[in-house]
Structure formats: structure tokens, C-alpha cells
Amino acid sequence: MKKVMLMMAMCLGMFACGNSNAKSNKATEEQPQKDRVEVLYFHGKQRCATCMAIEKNAKEAVEAQFADELKNGTVVFKSIDISKAENEKIAEKYEVTWSSLFICKWKNGKETHENLTEYAFANARTAPDTFKSGVIEKVKTSLK
């Protein structure tokens, strides 16, 4: 009987101590993320010339104009392959099924975003300077 009680006490002690990790992970998840602007380029495995121009020119514009902000995390550029399983959730969140470009503003833990896909397809390949200027302007506006 003493052995059974001792074993039960040890098991309870182990469960009580083992749960502290779950609480600390939850606290980490609840911490607000830094205010930032994200430039998200979504693409599939196969891409047309315009799709590749969207990524190339958007990335060039962001890197040239916002180098300091990229370093400190105020601006983030992400190229997301929606054909990969690990990107399924984010593709669903933005309702993306093909190449798309979004500018997302995170302020006080809340997100607002603008879909620039139509603008990107209209300008990235045929008017790259116009496209880059538009992306830069949208990011600048979002940083305010």
C-alpha cells in the first residue's frame, strides 16, 4: 500500500512539474509582435515571366529603399511558395490560389492588408519603374 501511494505521489509530482513548459509557451505566443510592414509575394511552383518580374522588382524596390527597416524588422519581405504544405495556412488566410502580392501593416497586434496583385500584374513586367514606385509608396504609407 505504501508503494502504491508513493508511486501515485511521484506521478502527480511529475505531471505538476511537467506542465510549466506549456504555460511559458502560451505566454510567449501572447506577447504582441513588433509593429511592422510585410510585403508578401505568393507564388506557385511554376511561374510565368510576369510572376517572376513581380517578385524580382518588388524585392529590389524594398531592398533598395528600406535597407535599414529590413535590418531592424520594421519592414519584412517574404516570398511564399503556396505549393508547399507548410505555407497552406497563410495561403488560406489571404485566400491566395495563384501569384499574388500583399502589403500588410501590423500595428498594435492588428493587421490590415492591401492586395496589390492586379497592380503588380499590370505593371511589374511592362512598367517596372512604375511598379517599384508604387510598391515603395504603399510601404511608406503603411509605415506611418
From TrEMBL:
> Which top-rank group of organisms is this from?
Bacteria
Does Ion transport show up as a keyword for this record?
no
Signal peptide region = 1-22
Q: Which InterPro entries match?
A: ArsF-like (IPR047698), Thioredoxin-like_sf (IPR036249)
Tagged with keyword Signal: yes
The UniProt keywords, alphabetically, are:
Signal
Q: What is this protein called?
A: Thioredoxin
- Organism field: Bacteroides uniformis
